[in-house]
């Protein structure tokens, strides 16, 4: 049964579009090519051009804001830098439009890097303020740097672009086709970037930045990348704008411009490409069509932001597609078996990780004091202890979330304390979380693919040019993700969104994601929490399977049935101190452990009994 | 000259502190940066202007404005932000909403009052003073003293009253405060009222000090006050005062010694530097992220 037969009307429409996407795109492009030929009034053509300028700007803003979740309020600045760079190079240095264009993109991109590098370490709203401040500074410089920018007077008489001697104007439709080319090029660039590990990293950062870090994604790098791309795209749009309007001044690029671009992204749908065209078409043509509302247009942009957030935050054209995930060509999920491959393991018992006298303090409180333990290769070791004993703190120490205040951690005999979380994942340590931290609005398969990110080697240019290496690796990682999912019993869930999975399956998905990082040591934080006996038995089987395949497991668990049945050895923590260690049978009868769990029997109570 | 810059900086800085407190209060409780605060400040100044136009005494205008602007703050929360909290929207949704609200207010002010700069009486100018040969104007002194008094009142409300205690409780742990029987929604409403009311006073004072009112007046002041709030550690009231003074002084000195055109850049430069070096501000504590 396919969605074509079972889905509702809109799903069938979507399926149709996806199936015939190449024909649909070709048809649309043909329509756009023909549009100026059947349009005579030049003011209408002018609106077409403005829509495409803002469409390009929206595609640019969409990368950091829609995909990566970093709201920029300063994209007008990159727009301005592109416009001024091109206008000044052409009017003052004798460049042609097409030779100035790369410089406009470059300079705007550099500006993106300048504002991005320091500020992207900041979270959400701080970043927005910095971008806003940055845009104001750029405007002040444009207005005051008289000798270069001509100050508030602006740059006048900017020549139109020439293409092999032909002046590209609105009259001969040259300007229209030029911006159409820019828009299509930008759309293609965004498409190839988004449909790669880069796009998955963007969305993972938006969904849960910490979880993304723990999957080894270099979040600062990807946020800066989104920003630089956004800036360069805006710069190109700016260059075109300058030569189309033929006059620019600092007031062409105000906060209003940034807000208009943001409103387009929000209205169309953050994190969609299709939404940008619709958003631009609606918001740019709106004041022209409804002229009597002209005084209220800025109020209207504000209303768009407020009302969309309230009633349709995903935007007009934003929805979670019900149609199946599109696998890369050559990857066939059907033929992949559920047989997880083994990691190389010689079978000898040597410590994979050693923790020596580790101390972690929060203020005056020692959450972990003087704790030492080790896990041998191919072992399943559990850490148990009452709530607040410091178990999760130990996981946070091992994965680099917290820095230690004393002691030493050796992984494969190499010291890892002070190492960044991303590098620890790269070395082969991965984890799950006590409070599930999936990427809820990504599909199950995409969640696992994010896990493979750390060992996916292709770079930005491979993704953009779809090189052989890119395609081979995407195929291989997808197949591996499918295999992991099938082996953990989630094969039938691949296409679903993570947030729609029941609790037990979400826990398993987290484990699948951790395995996908190619970790040798997997840290499981209460994997059986909230599971029924049937589910936790299945989990036990799977963890054993992992061990048999050469993985090493360190486990925090409260479910004693799980702990006693599965562990090779157990460590017991209480108040941040190690109070016991040994085989499950030894731990079960250890008086200190019983005391920690059940509380000691006081002298008073003893007397009462006698 | 130096002392003139310093006194101007201190006086204006205190007014920034008053606006900054509005950011801090809301941030403390909702962990939200209320972008609309600058526009609310402009709204407050315009209400006073309206009453002056109607030939009421200025103090009536200010009192009405304190009330109306406080209500505006509450309405913003009730109509735009509270529904998002109820839906448990992402933080980005509230952020974008306050940007939208700020834009709506600012542009409605433009439609009703016109976008041009309108003159506003300096209702607290009592001529120049000369304290031990230091040329301080009575406006500067008044702006400083009134802002300081209001900041003290705000601090007393937060530290010494029942509702202030509830605000602190909600700030520390919303869920636990709710379980202890604190009406969290009322606390949030009250906080927005307080933020709006203090913005109205700051708006009237600054309008009087510069003798100017215009719809976008809150844009730069809002950003500067935000810089002040961050500098002092957002959510910390006395931090806002120190932050306000630093921003006020540095922009006053920058405009005096570098040139007036770059006066407004000073606040942004400070903001960007502090965010890079110590994002939690001078007095902020580093939060421990629970994983």
Q: How would you describe this protein?
A:
The complex is a heterodimer of chains A (610) and B (291). In chain A, helix 5 runs antiparallel to helix 6, helix 9 (174-194) runs antiparallel to helix 12 (219-245) and helix 10 (197-207) packs across helix 18. Among the domains of chain A are: 1-38; 41-252, no CATH class. Chain A is elongated. In chain A, strand 3 and strand 4 form a beta hairpin. The longest helix of chain A is centred in the middle third of the chain and has 27 residues, at 219-245. Chain A has a 6-stranded mixed β-sheet, sandwiched between helices. In chain A, strands 4-3-6-7 form a 4-stranded antiparallel β-sheet, with helices on one face. With 610 residues, chain A is α/β, with parallel strands linked by helices. The mean pLDDT of chain A is 90. Chain A is built from 26 helices and 12 strands. Chain B is an all-alpha fold. Chain B has one domain. Chain B is 75% helix and 1% strand. Chain B has 11 helices and 2 strands, in the order ααααβααααβααα. In chain B, strands 1-2 form a two-stranded antiparallel ribbon. The termini of chain B are far apart. At the A-B interface, helix 7, helix 13, helix 15 and helix 16 of A face helix 3, helix 4, helix 9 and helix 11 of B.
């Amino acid at each position: 049964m396919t969605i074509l037969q079972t889905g509702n009307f809109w799903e069938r429409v979507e399926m149709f579009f996806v199936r015939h996407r190449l024909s649909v795109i070709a048809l649309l492009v043909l329509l756009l090519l023909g549009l100026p030929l059947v349009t005579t009034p030049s003011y209408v053509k002018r609106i077409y051009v403005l829509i495409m300028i803002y469409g390009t700007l929206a595609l640019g803003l969409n990368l950091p804001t829609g995909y990566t979740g970093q709201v920029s309020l300063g994209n007008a600045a990159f727009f301005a830098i592109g416009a001024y760079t091109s206008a000044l190079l052409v009017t003052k240095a004798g460049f042609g439009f097409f030779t100035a264009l790369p410089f406009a993109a470059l300079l705007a991109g550099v500006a993106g890097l300048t504002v991005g590098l320091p500020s992207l370490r900041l979270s959400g709203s701080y970043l927005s303020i910095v971008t806003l401040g940055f845009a104001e500074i750029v405007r002040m410089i444009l207005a005051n740097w008289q000798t270069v920018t001509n100050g508030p007077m602006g740059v006048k008489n900017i020549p139109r672009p020439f293409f092999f001697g032909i002046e590209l104007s609105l009259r001969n439709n040259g300007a229209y086709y030029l911006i159409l080319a820019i828009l299509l090029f930008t759309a293609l660039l965004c498409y190839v970037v988004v449909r790669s590990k880069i796009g998955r990293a963007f969305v993972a950062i938006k969904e849960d930045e910490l979880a993304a870090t723990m999957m080894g994604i270099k979040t600062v790098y990807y946020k800066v990348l989104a920003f630089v791309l956004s800036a360069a795209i805006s710069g190109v749009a700016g260059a075109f704008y300058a030569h189309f309007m033929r006059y620019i001044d600092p007031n062409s690029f105000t906060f209003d411009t940034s807000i208009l671009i943001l409103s387009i992204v929000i209205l169309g749908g953050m994190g969609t490409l299709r939404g940008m065209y619709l958003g631009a078409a609606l918001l740019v043509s709106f004041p022209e069509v409804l002229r009597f509302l002209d005084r209220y247009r800025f109020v209207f942009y504000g209303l768009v932001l407020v009302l969309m957030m309230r009633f349709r935050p995903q935007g007009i054209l934003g929805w979670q597609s019900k149609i199946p995930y599109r696998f890369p060509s050559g990857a066939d999920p059907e033929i992949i078996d559920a047989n997880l491959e083994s990691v190389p393991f010689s079978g000898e018992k040597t410590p994979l990780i050693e923790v020596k006298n580790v101390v972690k303090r929060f203020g005056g409180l020692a959450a972990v004091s003087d704790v030492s333990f080790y896990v041998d290769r191919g072992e399943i070791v559990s850490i148990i202890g009452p709530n607040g004993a410091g178990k999760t703190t130990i996981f946070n120490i091992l994965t680099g979330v917290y820095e230690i205040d004393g002691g030493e951690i050796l992984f494969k005999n190499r010291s890892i304390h002070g190492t960044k979380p991303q590098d620890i994942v790269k070395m082969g340590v991965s984890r799950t979380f006590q409070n599930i931290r999936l990427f809820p609005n990504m599909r199950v398969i995409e969640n696992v693919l994010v896990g493979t990110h750390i060992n996916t080697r292709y770079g930005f240019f491979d993704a953009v040019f779809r090189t052989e290496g890119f395609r081979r690796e995407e195929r291989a990682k997808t197949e591996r993700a499918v295999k992991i999912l099938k082996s953990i019993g989630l094969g039938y869930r691949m296409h679903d969104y993570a947030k729609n999975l029941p609790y037990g399956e979400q826990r398993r998905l987290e484990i699948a994601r951790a395995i996908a990082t190619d970790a040798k040591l997997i840290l499981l934080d209460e994997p059986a929490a909230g599971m029924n006996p049937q589910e936790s038995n299945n989990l036990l089987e799977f963890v054993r399977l992992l061990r048999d395949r050469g993985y090493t497991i360190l486990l925090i668990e409260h479910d004693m049935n799980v702990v006693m049945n599965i562990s090779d050895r157990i460590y017991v923590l209480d108040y941040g101190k190690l109070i016991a260690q040994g085989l499950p049978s030894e731990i079960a009868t250890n008086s200190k452990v019983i005391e920690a769990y059940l509380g000691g029997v006081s002298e008073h109570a003893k007397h009462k009994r006698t | 000259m130096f002392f003139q810059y310093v006194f101007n900086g201190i006086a204006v800085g205190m007014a920034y502190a008053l606006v900054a407190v509005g950011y801090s209060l809301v941030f403390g409780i909702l962990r939200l940066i209320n972008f609309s605060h600058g526009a609310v400040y402009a709204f407050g100044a315009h209400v006073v202007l309206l009453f002056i136009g109607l030939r009421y005494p200025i103090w009536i205008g200010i009192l009405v404005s304190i009330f109306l602007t406080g209500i505006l703050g509450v309405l913003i929360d009730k109509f735009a932000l509270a529904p998002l909290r109820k839906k448990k929207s992402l933080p980005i949704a509230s952020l974008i909403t306050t940007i939208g609200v700020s834009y709506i207010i600012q542009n409605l002010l433009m439609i009703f009052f016109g976008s041009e700069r309108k003159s506003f009486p300096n209702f607290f100018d009592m001529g120049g003073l000369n304290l031990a040969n230091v040329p301080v104007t009575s406006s500067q002194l008044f702006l400083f003293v009134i802002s300081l008094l209001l900041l003290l009142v705000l601090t007393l409300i937060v530290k010494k009253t029942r509702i202030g205690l509830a605000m602190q409780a909600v700030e520390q742990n919303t869920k636990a405060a709710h379980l202890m029987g604190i009406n969290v929604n009322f606390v949030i409403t009250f906080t927005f009222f307080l933020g709006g009311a203090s913005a109205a006073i700051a708006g009237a004072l600054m309008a009087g000090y510069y003798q100017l009112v215009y719809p976008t007046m809150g844009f730069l002041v809002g950003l500067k006050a935000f810089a002040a709030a961050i500098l002092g550690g957002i959510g910390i009231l006395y931090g806002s005062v120190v932050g306000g003074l630093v921003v006020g002084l540095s922009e006053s000195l920058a405009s005096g010694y570098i040139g007036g055109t770059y006066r407004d850049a000073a606040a942004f430069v400070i903001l960007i530097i502090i965010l890079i070096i110590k994002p939690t501000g001078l007095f902020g504590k580093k939060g421990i992220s629970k994983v």
